[in-house]
Amino acid sequence: MIIERATVEDLGVILTLRTEASEWLAQSGIDQWAVAWPNPEEQNQRILASIERGETWMVRNEDEATMATVALDTWSDPRLWTPDEQADPAMYMHRLIVRRKHAGLGTEIMDWASHRAHRLGQHWLRIDVWTDNTGLHRYYENNGFNHVRTLDLADYPSGALFQRSTDFGDEVP
Ligand SMILES: CC(C)(COP(=O)(O)OP(=O)(O)OC[C@H]1O[C@@H](n2cnc3c(N)ncnc32)[C@H](O)[C@@H]1OP(=O)(O)O)[C@@H](O)C(=O)NCCC(=O)NCCS
To answer: How many helices (H) and strands (E) does the chain have?
Structure first.
């Protein structure tokens, strides 16, 4: 597994991964990511800006084929996190997508993200998850995340907040 920063050339690949994921989810009747949020232009701009800030990562195999992607930043959204929580040193994870044929990689990628956050002095790895997707909430809980709260926001679809500590005890990050 090779994890490297995305470049602007990866934007199209990331959008393809997102489309593949939404189509896969639709087969199970899950509407997550069925439409771009808040619209395609702003979504693409948001992803591009993350790439340009060096905050989007590509997970590739030895043949340089993309297996997954994830974005990590330290900006806490004041609509989601309280002032006290915002004061915590935390890393925020976005757009974690694992291609179907590489299903199972997510845990390893989140462990890498936790170690990275820990090395950078961030005590928490946090994520905001599709508000009513309880199957996905369970996935994060099974991966050691605690549910913080669920916000029902009219203008933001991912109001279920989760976090896990990046402190691995005696394990060397
Ligand atoms: C979530 C994800 C990154 C996990 O990857 P992974 O750790 O490699 O594990 P898998 O893909 O095998 O998924 C683990 C389980 O979660 C379920 N799951 C994954 N994404 C889900 C979603 N968005 N909604 C509901 N269930 C989901 C899978 O069906 C699977 O269930 P199973 O154990 O009963 O087979 C990957 O499934 C994915 O890219 N999902 C679509 C995009 C997504 O929802 N990303 C998270 C945004 S917060």
So the answer is: 5, 7
**Interval 66-93: pLDDT, tens:** 999 999 999 999 999 999 999 999 999 9
pLDDT of 170 > 80? The answer is no
Contact call for residues 70 and 113 (beta carbons, < 8 A) = yes
Ligand 1: centre distance to CA 142 (Å): 12
**Domain assignment present for 35:** yes
Q: How far is the CA of 84 from the centre of ligand 1 (A)?
A: 30
pLDDT value for 36: 86
Residue 151 lies in a domain: yes
Ligand 1 center to 30 CA (angstroms): 12
CA of 122 to the centre of ligand 1 (A): 25
Residue 130 confidence (pLDDT) above 60: yes
Nearest CA to ligand 1 atom 39: 97
Does residue 170 sit within a domain? no
Pick from 14, 98, 158 the residue to mutate for probing ligand 1's pocket: most ligand atoms within 8 Å of its CB. 98
In which domain, by residue range, is 55 found?
A: 2-165
- Domains: count for the chain: 1
